[in-house]
Amino acid sequence: MRPANSVMMIACHHPNFMPWPGIFYKAMQASQVVLLDDVQFPLGGSWVNRNRFKNDQGEVWLTVPVWKRGRSLQRIDEVDICNEENWQKKHFLSLLHAYNHAPYWEEHSHFFQRIYRNPWPRLLELNLDILDYLGTALSIGQPFLRNSSLAVESKGSQRLVDICKALGARKYLTIASSHKYLDENLFQKSGIQLVYYKYEPPVYPQLWGDFIANLSVFDLLLTCGPKSAGLIQRAGWLVKS
Question: Which helix (H) or strand (E) is 34 found in, with range?
Answer without folding.
Answer: strand 32-35
